[in-house]
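Exercise 7b. C-alpha cells:
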C-alpha cells in the first residue's frame, strides 16, 4: 500500500485512486511561468512529480498527467513589454527551452502541456467565471475586473490552514501573488489596462485577461474532469494559488476538486529559497556549461526527500557524480557477468524489493537509494568472491532495469560505433524474421561489446553499459 502525505489533512494517507477499478490516476502539476529559463529549483518540483509518477507506474497504476504552461500573467506581460515584442514571441523561446530541459533531466513528458492562451482554455476560463458570477461567488467591481468573493466559500483557507477570523480579510487583491496578511477577494478576470498593451481577450465583462489561478482551475478540470486524484506543486503554490484553485473549482462543480494535495519543499541556496526574483538561481544550461550532466543534476535534485528543504551545493553535485560512477561500474560488472548466462535466475532482492517498499512510504527516496546501495555493496562482494552466477547476474540486471524505470539513471547515450550498428541491424533483421535464437545471440554479442539492447513498444533502444 502506498502512503502519501496530504497537505490538506497534514498526514500520510493510504493512496486509493478515484477510479473504481483502482487503476487510472489523474494528476495535475503546475508548470512553469515562461518568462525566463526555469531554474533548478523549479526542476526540483518537476523531478519530485516525475518520481511520483514513475513510482505509481511501477506499482501498476496508469497515470494521466497534465502540466500547464503559464504563458500569460503579470510577469510574462511585463517581460514582453520590456522587450517590445508580442507576448507569444516573448514566451516561445522559454517554452522550447523548458521542453529541452525536461528531456535533459529525463522527466517523463506529461500527457498534455496546455498553454493558458489556447483559445479553448480561455473560453473555459470565461465560462467558469460566468458561472461563478451567476451563483453569487464572484462579482465585477468598479475597476471592471471580476473578483472571487471569498466570504461566499466557507471552506476558503482549508488547504493553507488559515484562520480567516484572525486574518480579517478585507478589500480586494488584484495581483496574482500576495502574502496571507493581504488576503482578500482575488482577481478572476483582470480588466485591460494600458500596461497590458495588446494582450487582451473579449469577455462579457469587457476586454481583459484571466488571473493566474483561474487558468489552472480551467485547464485542470477541462482536461482531467471535475475530480482529480493528485495535484502537485512547490510549497509556495499552496497559498494563494492552490487555495484559490479549490475555491473556484469547487464552487463551479459542487464536488471535492482534489483528493490528495502534494507539495515539495524548496531548493535553497545558502539558506534562502532559490528564486528568479532573488537572483540566487542556477539554470540547467548554466550547470551543463560548467560540465555537469543532466543525470547528475537529476540525481542531486531527487535524492533528498521531497518534503525536506534541500540546500544546493557543488559538493552535493560532486557526491552525485561519485554515486553514479559507483552505479555505472556495478552495472557494467553485472552486465559482463550476465553475458554468459543461459537463463535468468531472479535475485532474492527483487522479491524483497526494499527499494519500492521505501518509496511506498511517502516517496522515501533516501531509504530507497540506501537499499539500492546496500545491494550494490553486497553483490559486488559476492562477485569478488565468485559467488554470483551469470544467471543470477542476469536476474539482478533485470531487477536493476525495473528499478531504473523509476530512477532513470543510466549513463548518457553515446554515439553508436559502426561495428555495433551492424550488429544491431542484424539483430533487427533476425527479429523481423522471427529468428529468436539468432536475435538472442546477437543481443549477447552486443552485451559483450558493452551495449545493452532493450525492446519495448516504442522500439529498440541501445544504451552503453559503462559510463
Ligand atoms: P513558477 O515558474 O515560479 O510558477 O514555479 C514553477 C514551479 O516551481 C512551482 O511548482 C513552484 O512551486 C516551484 N518552485 C519555484 N521555486 C522553487 C524552489 N526554489 N524550490 C522548489 N520548487 C520551486
Ligand atoms: Zn497552477
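Sequence design result:
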Amino acid at each position: 500500500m502506498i502512503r502519501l502525505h496530504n497537505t490538506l489533512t497534514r498526514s500520510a494517507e493510504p493512496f486509493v485512486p478515484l477510479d473504481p477499478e483502482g487503476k487510472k490516476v489523474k494528476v495535475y502539476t503546475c508548470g512553469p511561468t515562461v518568462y525566463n529559463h526555469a531554474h533548478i529549483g523549479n526542476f526540483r518540483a518537476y523531478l519530485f512529480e516525475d518520481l511520483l509518477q514513475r513510482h505509481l507506474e511501477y506499482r501498476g497504476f496508469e497515470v494521466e498527467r497534465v502540466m500547464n504552461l503559464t504563458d500569460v500573467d503579470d510577469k510574462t506581460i511585463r517581460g514582453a513589454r520590456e522587450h517590445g515584442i508580442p507576448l507569444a514571441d516573448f514566451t516561445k523561446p522559454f517554452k522550447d527551452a523548458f521542453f529541452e530541459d525536461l528531456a535533459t533531466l529525463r522527466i517523463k513528458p506529461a500527457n498534455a502541456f496546455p498553454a493558458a492562451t489556447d483559445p479553448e482554455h480561455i473560453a473555459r476560463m470565461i465560462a467558469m467565471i460566468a458561472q461563478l458570477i451567476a451563483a453569487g461567488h464572484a462579482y465585477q467591481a468598479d475597476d471592471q475586473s471580476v473578483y472571487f468573493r471569498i466570504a461566499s466559500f466557507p471552506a476558503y483557507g482549508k488547504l493553507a490552514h488559515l484562520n480567516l477570523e484572525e486574518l480579517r480579510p478585507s478589500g480586494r487583491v488584484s495581483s496574482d501573488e500576495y502574502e496571507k496578511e493581504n488576503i482578500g477577494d482575488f482577481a478572476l478576470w483582470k480588466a485591460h489596462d494600458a500596461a497590458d498593451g495588446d494582450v487582451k481577450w473579449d469577455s462579457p465583462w469587457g476586454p481583459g485577461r484571466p488571473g493566474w489561478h483561474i487558468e489552472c482551475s480551467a485547464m485542470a478540470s477541462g482536461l482531467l474532469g471535475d475530480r482529480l486524484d493528485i495535484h502537485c506543486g512547490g510549497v509556495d503554490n499552496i497559498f494563494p494559488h492552490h487555495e484559490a484553485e479549490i475555491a473556484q473549482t469547487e464552487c463551479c462543480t459542487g464536488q471535492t476538486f482534489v483528493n490528495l494535495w502534494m507539495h515539495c519543499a524548496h531548493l535553497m541556496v545558502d539558506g534562502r529559497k532559490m528564486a528568479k526574483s532573488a537572483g540566487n538561481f542556477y539554470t540547467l544550461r548554466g550547470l551543463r556549461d560548467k560540465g555537469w550532466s543532466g543525470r547528475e543534476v537529476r540525481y542531486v535534485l531527487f535524492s533528498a526527500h521531497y518534503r525536506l528543504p534541500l540546500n544546493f551545493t557543488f559538493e552535493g553535485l560532486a557526491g552525485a557524480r561519485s554515486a553514479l560512477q559507483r552505479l555505472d561500474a556495478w552495472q557494467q560488472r553485472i552486465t559482463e557477468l550476465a553475458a554468459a548466462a543461459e537463463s535468468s535466475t531472479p535475485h532474492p532482492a527483487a522479491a524483497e524489493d526494499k527499494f519500492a517498499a521505501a518509496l511506498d512510504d511517502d516517496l522515501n527516496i533516501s531509504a530507497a537509494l540506501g537499499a539500492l546501495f546496500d545491494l550494490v555493496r553486497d553483490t559486488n562482494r559476492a562477485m569478488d568472491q565468485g559467488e554470483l552466477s551469470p544467471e543470477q547476474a542476469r536476474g539482478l540486471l533485470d531487477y536493476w532495469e525495473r528499478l531504473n524505470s523509476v530512477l532513470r539513471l543510466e549513463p548518457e547515450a553515446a554515439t553508436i560505433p559502426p561495428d555495433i550498428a551492424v550488429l544491431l541491424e542484424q539483430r533487427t533483421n533476425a527479429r523481423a524474421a522471427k529468428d529468436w535464437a539468432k536475435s538472442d545471440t546477437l543481443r549477447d554479442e552486443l552485451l559483450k561489446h558493452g551495449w545493452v539492447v532493450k525492446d519495448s513498444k516504442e522500439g529498440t533502444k541501445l544504451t552503453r553499459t559503462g559510463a
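Instructor comment: The pocket of zinc ion (ligand 2) is lined by residues 30, 216, 241 (CB under 6 Å). The chain has 16 helices and 16 strands.
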